[in-house]
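Our consortium's second objective concerns turning raw sequence data into structural hypotheses that experimental partners can test. To show how far this objective has progressed, the report includes one record in full. It was chosen at random from the queue rather than selected for favorable results. The single chain below, 65 residues long, was entered without modification.
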Amino acid sequence: MRLIVNGESLTTNAGTIRELIDELQLIPERVAVEVNLSVIKKKDYETFKLKDGDKVEIVNFVGGG
């Protein structure tokens, strides 16, 4: 399936947000995800189904000081 992730086209086999996060090697607790302009709750990452053509924005929180 093709997604637009952070403005770039991505071909993926991920069916859920959690699978996409794992594929991108991100830490689920450190990201916020929006799909087609809707913020998705962390508790829904496992079950939220992605569809071909979805626009996904992933913000990765980085600590520092």
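The partners drew two points from this record. The chain has one helix and five strands. The mean pLDDT is 95. Both points have been shared with the crystallography group to help prioritize constructs.
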